C-alpha cells in the first residue's frame, strides 16, 4: 500500500483508481471524527498522523529500507509536503474557529474545482468544458449539502475565517497539482510528511488546547481508524493518484467525498434526512458523471 509509485510501473487508470480510493476513505472522516468525542482538533491531528507515520515506519523496517535516505529531500519538496498536509489542517481549524462552519466549509471545498483549473498548468494536460461543468455542478451540490439548503450569508465580521478557508482551498489544490512535478519521488515520503505534521500539530495543541484523552474503547478505535484510513492510507493513495492518474477527473470526483460522508452520517443516525440532501446528492452525482468522462473513456478504450 505504501510502496513507491513509479510511472513505469503503474498505469494511468490504476493510478486514478488509487486516487478514487483516497476520496472514498475521506468520506469516512466525518463519521470517525464523530466517534472521537471531545478530543481537540490539533490533538486529534497529532494522534492520527502519528498512527499513519507508525504504519509507514513499520513497513520500512520490515522491508529493510534506508529510512535516513527518505529524509534527504530537496527543500521545495519539504515545503510542498509539510505545507500541504500540515498547512491545510492548520488553516482549516483556523477557519472553523473564526467563521460559521457552513460558510467556511463551502469556501474550503473550492479545492476540487481549483485542482481542475490549476491542472491546465501541467504538461500534457488540457482543460475541457465537461471538466469545468462537472466541477461546478458538484460544487453547487456540495454547497447544498453543507448549508442544508438554507443559503449562504457571508458576514464581514468573519473575514479572518473566510480568508483561512480560502487559503485551505489553495493549499490543498496547489499541493495536489504540484505533486505531479515530483512524480519520480517515492510515495514513501508521505510517511515522513505525516510524521512532521504530527509533531507540528502537537506543538499547536500544546500551545492552544487542553489535552483530552479518549474516554473509552470506541473513541480509541475511532482515532486508530482515522490514522489507518482517512488520515493514513488515503494520503498515500492520493499521492499515487495525483502523480500518475487523471488529475482533472480526480478533482471532480473529489466532490463524492462530502456526498458519501453525508449519506454515512444519515445512515448511522448522526445526521437528519432532508430534501436538500437529495438535491445535493443528485447534483454531485451528475457533476461527477459529467466531469469524469475521460476516466470512462480510458476504461472503455483499455478494454477494447
UniProtKB/TrEMBL annotation:
The chain crosses the membrane at residues 12-35, 41-62, 74-94, 106-123, 130-147, 159-178, 190-208, 220-238, 250-271, 277-296. Residues 19-146, 160-290 form the EamA domain. SUPFAM superfamilies: Multidrug resistance efflux transporter EmrE. Keywords: Membrane, Transmembrane, Transmembrane helix. The keyword Transmembrane helix applies. It comes from the Bacteria. This is Membrane protein.
Amino acid at each position: 500500500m505504501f510502496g513507491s509509485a513509479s510511472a513505469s510501473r503503474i498505469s494511468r487508470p490504476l493510478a486514478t483508481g488509487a486516487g478514487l480510493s483516497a476520496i472514498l476513505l475521506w468520506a469516512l472522516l466525518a463519521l470517525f471524527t464523530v466517534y472521537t468525542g471531545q478530543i481537540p482538533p490539533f490533538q486529534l491531528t497529532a494522534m492520527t498522523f502519528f498512527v499513519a507515520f507508525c504504519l509507514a515506519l513499520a513497513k520500512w523496517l520490515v522491508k529493510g529500507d534506508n529510512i535516513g535516505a527518505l529524509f534527504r529531500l530537496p527543500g521545495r519538496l519539504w515545503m510542498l509536503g509539510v505545507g500541504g498536509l500540515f498547512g491545510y489542517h492548520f488553516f482549516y481549524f483556523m477557519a472553523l474557529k473564526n467563521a460559521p462552519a457552513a460558510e467556511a466549509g463551502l469556501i474550503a471545498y473550492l479545492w476540487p474545482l481549483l485542482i481542475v483549473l490549476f491542472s491546465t498548468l501541467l504538461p500534457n494536460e488540457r482543460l475541457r468544458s465537461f471538466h469545468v461543468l462537472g466541477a461546478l455542478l458538484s460544487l453547487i451540490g456540495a454547497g447544498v449539502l453543507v448549508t442544508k439548503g438554507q443559503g449562504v450569508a457571508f458576514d464581514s465580521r468573519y473575514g479572518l475565517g473566510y480568508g483561512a478557508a480560502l487559503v485551505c482551498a489553495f493549499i490543498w489544490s496547489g499541493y495536489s497539482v504540484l505533486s505531479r512535478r515530483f512524480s519520480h519521488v517515492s510515495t514513501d515520503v508521505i510517511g515522513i510528511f505525516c510524521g512532521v505534521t504530527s509533531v507540528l500539530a502537537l506543538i499547536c495543541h500544546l500551545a492552544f488546547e487542553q489535552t483530552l484523552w479518549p474516554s473509552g474503547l470506541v473513541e480509541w478505535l475511532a482515532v486508530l481508524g482515522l490514522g489507518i484510513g482517512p488520515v493514513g492510507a488515503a494520503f498515500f493513495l492520493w499521492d499515487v493518484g495525483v502523480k500518475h492518474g487523471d488529475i482533472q477527473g480526480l478533482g471532480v470526483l473529489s466532490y463524492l467525498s462530502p456526498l458519501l460522508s453525508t449519506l454515512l452520517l444519515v445512515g448511522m443516525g448522526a445526521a437528519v434526512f432532508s430534501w436538500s440532501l437529495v438535491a445535493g446528492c443528485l447534483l454531485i452525482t451528475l457533476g461527477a458523471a459529467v466531469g469524469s468522462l475521460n476516466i470512462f473513456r480510458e476504461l472503455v478504450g483499455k478494454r477494447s
